């Protein structure tokens, strides 16, 4: 692992992709299925292979999600040589302009993953407390500030997953994240909660040398902010 020269920021991630598809979900689904999905499968052999693996998997299991929703979660949670999430998250964190101008690589995965989280959340509308451990350092002078993660962010209902790190840890009170572990390639043992990039949190605690982590942050969900809401679907609205 490469050590960062500077502490990473915790801010509103203003360059990130944050479309929440409020008011345009059906139109965006049509656009993704008609155009983006096949284009993205054709342009990336790796993504095409992983997507087929996911579709084959969800075809063989019962699910409350539709096939594309379940496949998106499976793809996002795959590790090893089949992993996509790292490239996907990097594209989301700084991809605002690319998303607007049509050069974003992952319109289909982004939409299906958002669609899945929102569907699961609609069936379980309660806020959750989850935990995230990392091996990297973040800025600590952020108390009472609002932040977003800037990409889809994995967390867990379990606090004791120490193999993910103890440099910076988060107690997250999320009201828009959803439990995805029943659809994850990791199965249920990590009790994963996936947080969308448009969720805004207030930092209510930033404490150093906590017993379970070098720095512990506590985050309280406050609202959604979607600067890119429906910006792509507008062409067919």
From TrEMBL:
It is found in: Secreted. SUPFAM superfamilies: ADP-ribosylation (SSF56399). The keyword RNA-binding does not apply. It catalyses: L-arginyl-[protein] + NAD(+) = N(omega)-(ADP-D-ribosyl)-L-arginyl-[protein] + nicotinamide + H(+). It comes from the Eukaryota. InterPro entries: ADP-ribosyltransferase_ARG, ART. GO terms for molecular function: NAD+ poly-ADP-ribosyltransferase activity; NAD+-protein-arginine ADP-ribosyltransferase activity; nucleotidyltransferase activity; toxin activity. Its EC number is 2.4.2.31. It holds the Pfam family ART. Its main location: secreted. One of its GO terms (cellular component) is extracellular region. PANTHER family: ADP-RIBOSYLTRANSFERASE (PTHR10339), SECRETED EXOENZYME S (PTHR10339:SF25). Belongs to the Arg-specific ADP-ribosyltransferase family. This is NAD(P)(+)--arginine ADP-ribosyltransferase.
């Amino acid at each position: 692992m490469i050590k960062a020269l500077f502490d990473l920021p915790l801010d509103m991630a203003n360059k990130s992709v944050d479309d929440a598809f409020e008011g345009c979900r059906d139109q965006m689904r049509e656009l993704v299925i008609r155009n983006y999905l096949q284009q993205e499968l054709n342009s990336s052999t790796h993504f095409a292979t992983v997507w087929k693996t996911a579709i084959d998997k969800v075809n063989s299991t019962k699910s409350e999600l539709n096939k594309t929703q379940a496949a998106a979660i499976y793809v996002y949670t795959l590790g090893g040589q089949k992993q996509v999430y790292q490239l996907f998250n990097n594209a989301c964190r700084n991809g605002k302009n690319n998303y607007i101008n049509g050069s974003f690589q992952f319109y289909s995965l982004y939409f299906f993953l958002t669609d899945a989280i929102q569907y699961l959340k609609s069936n379980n509308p309660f806020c959750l407390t989850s935990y995230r451990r990392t091996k990297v350092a973040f800025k600590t002078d952020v108390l009472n500030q609002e932040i977003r993660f800037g990409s889809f962010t994995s967390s867990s209902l379990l606090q004791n997953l120490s193999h993910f790190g103890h440099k910076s840890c988060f107690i997250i009170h999320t009201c828009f994240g959803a439990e995805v572990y029943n659809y994850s390639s990791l199965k249920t043992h990590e009790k994963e909660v996936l947080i969308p990039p448009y969720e805004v949190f207030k930092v209510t605690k930033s404490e150093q040398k906590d017993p379970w982590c070098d720095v512990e942050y506590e985050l309280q969900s406050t609202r959604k902010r979607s600067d890119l809401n429906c910006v792509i679907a507008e062409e067919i609205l």
